[in-house]
């Protein structure tokens, strides 16, 4: 190979700054090659009750992610659930994201309850990623401990994957939160779509984004766990909530069918709407300062 050819290849090669990546710990022996790694999610500044509940939630999150990974590895494109959420995208990427939750190094990641940014006082905030303040830290607010359900209750009490929130269970909520960290989400997993319908559309229109869409990963994990584990062979996919236009049409039809009860119905609807609108959204911040509420 000529010197000119070598020079052109050198110029064309991508340049990586090794300073951006922590150095591997010097090799000691075959028994301790992974010395210095952190396999559990670090928790600090939480009281004993919060620490216990958060520890259990992380165990359940690992179960949820582990099963999602194993479902992909077992069924791949033959899984209707896979095609539904990820289209024709390669199976390695979502399987890898789920595996990273379970087996990736957590050194530098921190979950805390002391609210150094004073956001937990805001109504409906269950927690937040600290973003530019500390991109591998997440604050868990008291609201998380009082509102999140255990994974054992999946499909219970009328919950459906399509109709409910992916953050209803502590396990799936934590999947959302760990992917916000630079360590685990790598700035790649993000919010390309959020609602159930939008995630299904993303799988068709942009499968390459679907496999790194935080909500798609959560919907998939919940759906396959429900079908394979929680309610075997049945699951609880359900249907997404009616659109506002469908709700309006239904309300008009109902009013037309019974004029006599319209005043009562309108009063009840107004009260319900007032209650719904005053219900707090669950919010977190992004590194650019954007507040994302679900």
TrEMBL record:
Alphabetized InterPro entries for the sequence: HRXXH (IPR029482), MetalloPept_cat_dom_sf (IPR024079), PRA1-like (IPR039124)
Domain called Putative peptidase: residue spans: 16-238
A molecular-function term among this protein's GO annotations: zinc ion binding
Lineage: superkingdom: Eukaryota
Pfam families according to UniProt: HRXXH (PF13933)
Ranges of biased composition (kind: Low complexity): 267-279
GO CC terms of this entry: cell surface; extracellular region; fungal-type cell wall
Sequence segments annotated as region (Disordered): 267-294
Compositionally biased intervals (Basic and acidic residues): 283-294
SUPFAM superfamilies, A to Z: Metalloproteases ('zincins'), catalytic domain
Identification of the protein by name: Prenylated Rab acceptor protein 1
């Amino acid at each position: 190979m000529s010197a000119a050819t070598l020079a052109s290849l050198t110029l064309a090669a991508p340049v990586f700054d090794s300073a951006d990546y922590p150095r591997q710990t010097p090799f000691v022996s075959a028994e301790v090659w992974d010395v210095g790694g952190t396999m559990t999610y670090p928790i600090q500044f939480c009281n004993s009750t919060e620490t216990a509940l958060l520890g259990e939630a992380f165990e359940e999150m690992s179960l949820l992610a582990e099963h999602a990974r194993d479902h992909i590895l077992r069924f791949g494109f033959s899984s209707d659930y896979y095609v539904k959420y990820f289209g024709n995208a390669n199976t390695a990427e979502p399987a890898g994201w789920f595996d990273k939750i379970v087996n990736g190094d957590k050194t530098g990641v921190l979950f805390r309850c002391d609210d150094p940014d004073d956001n937990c006082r805001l109504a409906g905030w269950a927690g937040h990623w600290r973003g530019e303040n500390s991109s591998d830290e997440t604050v868990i607010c008291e609201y998380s401990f009082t509102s999140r359900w255990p994974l054992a209750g999946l499909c219970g009490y009328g919950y459906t994957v399509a109709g409910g929130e992916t953050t209803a269970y502590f396990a799936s909520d934590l999947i959302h939160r760990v992917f916000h960290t630079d360590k685990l989400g790598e700035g790649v997993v993000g919010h390309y779509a959020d609602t159930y319908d939008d995630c299904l559309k993303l799988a068709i229109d942009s499968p390459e984004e679907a496999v790194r869409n935080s909500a798609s990963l959560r919907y998939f994990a919940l759906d396959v766990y429900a079908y394979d584990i929680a309610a075997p062979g049945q699951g609880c996919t359900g249907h997404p909530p009616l659109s506002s236009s469908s709700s309006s049409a239904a309300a008009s039809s109902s009013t037309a069918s019974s004029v006599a009860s319209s005043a009562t119905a309108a009063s009840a609807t107004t009260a319900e709407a007032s209650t719904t609108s005053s219900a707090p959204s669950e919010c977190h911040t992004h590194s650019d300062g954007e507040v994302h509420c679900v």
